[in-house]
Amino acid sequence: MLRRGGLLPHQIGGGVMNRGPVIFFSAFLAFAISFFAFVLLPQTQIGRQPLATVDGVANAYPAARPGEAHQGAEIYRANGCVTCHSQQIRQTGNVFDVVLTDAGTNLTAVLTAMNNHLNPAVEFALTDVTNALPKTILKAVPTKAAAEALSKKFTEAGAKTDLRVMPVGPDIARGWGLRRSVAADYLYDTPPLLGSQRVGPDLANVGMRLPDANWHLVHLYQPRAVVKDSAMPPYRYLFTTRKIGATPSADALVFPAGFGPEAGYEVIPTDAARALVAYLQSLRVDASLFEAPMTAPAK
Amino acid sequence: MNPEPSSPLNQEEAPAPMWLIVVFSLLLYAGFLYLDQNGGGFSPQVYAPYRDLADLKTYQPSRGGDDIIRLGEQRYVATCGQCHQASGLGAVGQFPPLAGSEWVTESDPARLIRISLHGVQGPITVKGQEWNLVMSLNATSLGIADKDLAAILTYIRQAWGNKAPAVNVEQVQAVKDETKGRAVQWTTGELNAVPLKK
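Output (structure tokens, whole complex):
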């Protein structure tokens, strides 16, 4: 039996607000629980997270963002890039690649293993075993057990194999990153510019994807000069256009044919544009972490 | 003094309907079930798509090579590596190199196991260069277990560009039995007299 707030009948008459304490306590409880679960608990768990250890080297990741790149983050915020660009890569799972690293001494046995256990439609030649190692012999095996079972066929033949952990997901398929983003990726970001809209591509790993500074500068000055029909707005006020003096400036943007200012003029990036590009180049999610494991590409 | 008649809405004894209690219990149950399956044990290191720490561990990439090599590398650095260096290159005039050494990469490890168990002394030629020193520490004096020594030897035979077959525990134990009672270092003369299987 539920009683209305445990009140006696004669106390009820005056309407709902008579139950003030009950409402107050329920509201307080609801607030306290969410504060505990969404603010306090995460803060105690990852609030003081140290820099990540990578390959046994402590404090190796993420790389600090010194000087220009640090200022660039402010330019990024000030220009509202976050309204169209997220910085968080999603992942739905992992697959395994089997890589032949060393064919060993018994090449025919390895060749037999290749012909028996890989693509039945392909007849491998001895040169497939010896040339260009390490070589990925099987891609995207869905489970580790299956990949290990296959590796075993090759180790039994005296060869050596390596299992590569390959994260998969729609963002990764688009080339936006190598693995999912985790809290450690944002340790140098105050505030983390996660973003929620994806009018443009995710930028969490843009420094790895597009390392060229001139590409970024031209893209910011005139997006359609490098991306056909780009919907990104140009940021011309981050540049100055001036008459070419006695010698052309070394800093001037290099445009693809058919774009750029009229003849006799050159486009020079301001410090803000340069800082912004330094920041974009510093956005790299490239380390394998315990909480987001992957086989990192060779540096 | 007549109390106001209570309206039907204010029925203080109105019981909560049974179906509501059942619905709420089911919702609560489903909620906890979901948390249990997707909460990652509340570990701050478990993100989707991983289920829990144990699941996450199975996805950790190997740093190239297999477990035995990694164990060997670890144990090597702490023992033999003090002298022969983590790079396997040794040190000029003090410790001969293991990288590219014919003593290390001989296909039958019988001599290599002897060297590591008891050391070598006197003139020895490594990669065309003559050394004349004493290997004063060895697997016996360093107290390295047979299993670890097999891993170390496998590692030094396959690291730094060396290519030789792995060494297993049985091979180490066999040599131990054959050389029971030996305490002094080997000389190259003695080592060369050890018969090798081809």
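The two ends of chain B are 116 Å apart (CA to CA).
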